[in-house]
Amino acid sequence: MAGEVKMSSEVRAAWLFVGPGLAIIFLFFLLPIAAALLLSLTDFDLYAVADWHNLRLVGFDNYLHLLRDSLFWKAMRNTFYFVLVGGPLTVVVSLAAALMIQSRLTRFPGLFRTAFFAPAVTTLVAIATVWRYLYHPNFGLLNHALGWIGIAPIDWLGDTRWAMPAIILLSIWKNFGANMIILAAGLQSIPESLYEAARLEGAGWWRQLRHVTLPMLAPTFLFVAVMTCIGYFQLFAEPFVLTRQGEPLNSTLSVALLMYKEGFRFWHMGYAAAVAFVLFLVILAATTLQVRLARRGEA
Amino acid sequence: MVSMISLGACAPRSGQTDGVVTLRFWALGREGEVVKDLIPEFERRNPGIRVAVQQIPILNAHEKLLTACVGGVTPDLAQVGNTWIPELANLKAIAPLDKLVQRSGVVAQADYFAGIWDTNVVDGSVYGVPWYVDTRLLFYRTDLLAAAGFPEPPRTWRQWMEAMRRVKARAGPGRFAILLPVDEHEQPLILGRELGAGLLRDGDRYGDFRSPAFREAAGFYVGLFRSGLAPAWSNSQINSVYQQFAAGDFAFFITGPWNVGEFRRRLPPEMKDKWNTAPMPAPDNSRDWPGVSVAGGASLALFRGSRHPAEAWKLVEFLSEPAVQVQFHKLTGDLPPRASAWGSPSLAGDPQTAAFRAQLERVVPAPKVPEWEEISIQIWQSLEPAIRGRSTVDAALTDLDTRVDRILEKRRKVLARRRASGR
Fold first, then answer.
1. Is any Cβ of chain A less than 8 angstroms from the Cβ of B31?
2. Which residues of B, range 356-395, sit inside 8 Å of A by Cβ?
3. CATH says B2-135+295-364 is which class?
4. Which tens digit of pLDDT belongs to each residue from B153-197?
5. For the segment A16-38, what is each residue's pLDDT rounded down to a tens digit?
6. Residue A168: CB partners within 8 Å, gap ≥ 6?
7. A16 within domain boundaries
8. pTM score, whole prediction
9. Which numeric CATH code is attached to B137-293+369-412?
10. Is residue A56 less than 8 Å (CB to CB) from chain B?
């Protein structure tokens, strides 16, 4: 009896500790998700804002329209292009940078670490404004540099073929610093004795990287890959600022940008919520796939 | 979500301290910058009123206004694009001004160009006072036209077509007669309105782009590209309108008053006397000249949530005074919507602005439905495949009607419900 009373007071204490956290998760995470799901089953729009009676439950109509909307598929293709090309490139560049600043041969590693990390803590809007100048077809530094090696000027942000590569380049530059710090921390936790053993066995730089560094780094690597992937699926601010909301000809229109435009430009909130939910499902599926693949790799 | 549901009522936030009322006035882009120069005079005349101008970038203005209405944080008054008025009126965000206008000694409806005033009228009530007007017409190279045998600008579509053919024949490959960016809806819209196309039908419940009038207009428009008179360029493919106009890449361009200032600033000095503006040609001799164009521009609107509507109206009246409008024109280049303001020497004596005066007598509004913004984008998106030869005009218009019908689906439901409930 006494034991039970003690248990329940312990349980009470536990609830007291986790309560605020759970409340916040419920209030700011679960509730909005549920609200968005509900919203996506309605035709909430400007008419409903004006008069409540104009709101209707429409079932899965929004989703059915979505699947038939060529603009949605275009946005989906653009987003996958960005994730599949930009994601791996970002991770590889991050890894290279991490290896470089961890290398004993590098002088002033602190300086490089700070310099590489700086873009990650700078506002994207400010970055994008500067990059607009870099990408300018006539006066941009990038085309100027390409001119030295005999490449004709490219209309980076005006040409449908080059607009997305331009966005990818900016994103890599903006994001690799943060990933680099995480990967560098992972590198530091690899015991030096493993490298010594490998060197005694006669392993060169490449074999050390392949058989010691990468396997030991796998958990950190997975974390970085998953976080980059999730972040990149939500591509929004870069095209929003750099290519005036998805120009040219919607070639940089991402799913998140489509959601924003449907929601806040035309105020199709029900439809926008459906877009948001589909994006959520895609990210969930991609993340699950990545984790599964990584587990299989370990086994 | 919850805050989104407690809608409609736009809560006022205007301050009132020591008997001084502070009006919150949202103005857009360049006008927002320049209007600040006019405010001191207003405050001098009205010691009890202070005006806080918030300047809003033009690109985000529409979204910001809608969000403000839904969130209940609207200003006392704002500059709004006149195509947004039906939307804001439908939201019950802006107030009808009929009584204020009737009593006003300054805002005299008869002095305003009728087509411009009409853009502010929704279901018989006026919701905005026109502040400045935008309407598109022909900008053309006088030297290229004269060389092609047209010392005067064309007055009918037939003359216009002949002028374009001759200009193109003289210009040769790589150069064109007219620039019509394929990602703009204004040009086909103007041509359609010139032929009297209604664009929507049955009380604006369905698209009516397959009507004979719009079909003819779309055929003429698409034909300009198919016959090589106009290049199929979108805005992102055009390097610089000004450089290309100066280089003779095209002789005609349908654009608005903002480009009068831009042309003067950006064209090389030797081009100074080689361009002019002309009202839209009429489709044929049986119709009045000039042909109609579409009324655009911005109005001043009062928000229902304002606690100081009387003071806000005073500011509207001040900004509507012909003398203030002339001053505003000098600051911005924006054209005044009142006939009396056009008497001032700075407007009456300007040859490149004179065509706008004639055109303003002949402007009509775009259809006044809250969905217009969305429909207008659909117009060029449906026509583009026909321009690029991937579809026919008829197929494009069928596609356009289908999409517009879908955009108007909710409107039909709402109207049916209103009728059923007898409102």
1. no
2. 370, 373-374
3. alpha beta
4. 999 999 999 999 999 999 988 899 999 999 899 999 999 999 999
5. 999 999 999 999 989 988 998 99
6. A82, A85, A86, A89
7. no
8. 0.80
9. 3.40.190.10
10. yes
